[in-house]
Amino acid sequence: xxxxxxxxxxxxxxxxxxxxxxxxxxxxxxxxxxxxxxxxxxxxxxxxxxxxxxxxxxxxxxxxxxxxxxxxxxxxxxxxxxxxxxxxxxxxxxxxxxxxxxxxxxxxxxxxxxxxxxxxxxxxxxxxxxxxxxxxxxxxxxxxxxxxxxxxxxxxxxxxxxxxxxxx
Length: 168
Ligand SMILES: CC(C)(COP(=O)(O)OP(=O)(O)OC[C@H]1O[C@@H](n2cnc3c(N)ncnc32)[C@H](O)[C@@H]1OP(=O)(O)O)[C@@H](O)C(=O)NCCC(=O)NCCS
Known about the structure:
single chain, Aminopeptidase, 4 helices, about 25% helix, binds coenzyme A, Acyl_CoA_acyltransferase, GNAT_dom, Bact_Acetyltransf, acyltransferase activity, transferring groups other than amino-acyl groups, transferase
């Protein structure tokens, strides 16, 4: 697969990818992407209205035509802990590093907000393991109402990791 070229300045061409905080103009693209995987029970569904209300918590990867290829979101669990949610990559863009990029961008957002750690409930623990997440006990997050068949993973966010500028 072609590695993703990350562009931070200027207008991207059709083949270029930008990873950034989400905007209201991304809502329909995010909703469609999440729904694509919610239909396969891999993600929890989120309505367009829910995404609008949480738009400041989303990051997206877009192509040169501003189409949303990937998204991920942060949900505050406590002042020190954040949940990683709605991690989704368009089927046609799998395996090009976009999942890693949007997770990295949400982690940067979490650090900016003062969170020390992130957790997720997922059916894709091997993806999260590749990103440095470790198995966690569901009981560590008692206020999270997760689907019973998901696995829990978590990662400590260290301050010395290189921040991802595009998430700022
Ligand atoms: C899981 C998902 C987000 C991965 O996105 P992606 O862009 O294909 O992943 P990346 O290319 O960034 O891969 C990053 C790393 O994870 C690994 N990886 C990706 N998907 C994997 C999987 N299903 N199983 C095991 N490892 C996986 C890659 O090999 C890569 O590892 P490496 O860097 O050591 O080579 C994508 O498949 C998806 O959207 N799935 C449907 C929705 C979903 O399940 N979301 C997660 C639930 S919370």
